[in-house]
Amino acid sequence: MKGTRPLDNQEIRLVSACFDGKFESRNRGLFMLGVSTGGRISELLSLQIGDVWQNKRAVGDLLFDKSVVKGGEVSRAVPVNSDGRRAIADIIAWHRAAYNTTHKSRPLFPSRNGQGTKRMSRRTAHNVLKAAFEAAGLNGHLATHSLRKSFAQRLYDRTGDIFAVQEMLGHKSVATTQKYLGVNYATVREALEEMSLDSELHERGILGSSLKTTADETLFLELALRGYDLSRLRDNDTTGEIIKIS
What we know:
By secondary structure, the chain is mostly helical. The chain is built from 12 helices and 6 strands. The relative contact order is 0.12.
């Protein structure tokens, strides 16, 4: 969804803790698998148990078949990390408890109706995720597509490889992938701190770690910012020469 924002790791933890009720494991599993694999909501809801649970364990690589991929042109495989594998194991345990079966053809994310034989709808997915975002106290434009954007942003932040992100998302063009990637606010915050006058003056050793309020030091600050070399001046010494740095 256009305009939705990604979540960082701390926000993901907060949202993950906000699912409850009879379908808690299903809903949390949808969320965690989404932020861990970058699947579109339609792709996630199309998954069957056999797609994620093989040889009595969670798969290490998740295949989104071309039959469910947007455009239907190519399939793609995405590695499943420990968060995703844990989510799969929890969903399988929930299926056993709720329906007493984990047949491979059953929908991984079933509807409340139909004894687990019908898929969850996109509207239901939207509603349960929206409720979790609100319960976590998050703001900004968040929706089902935030799961996919969270995967993309976190992968790019760790690899710096936009082409790897493109492949994992299944985009035809890297230009489309670029639109998914926003600002890493932690990096921006660090850069802004480094840009501050306090930081710059402290590094140069001109006025120390904080700006003073005396008239003399206010003058020194003004001269320093205007490019004058004050290194020859010492406390209470007015004989030193002030040279403009060209």
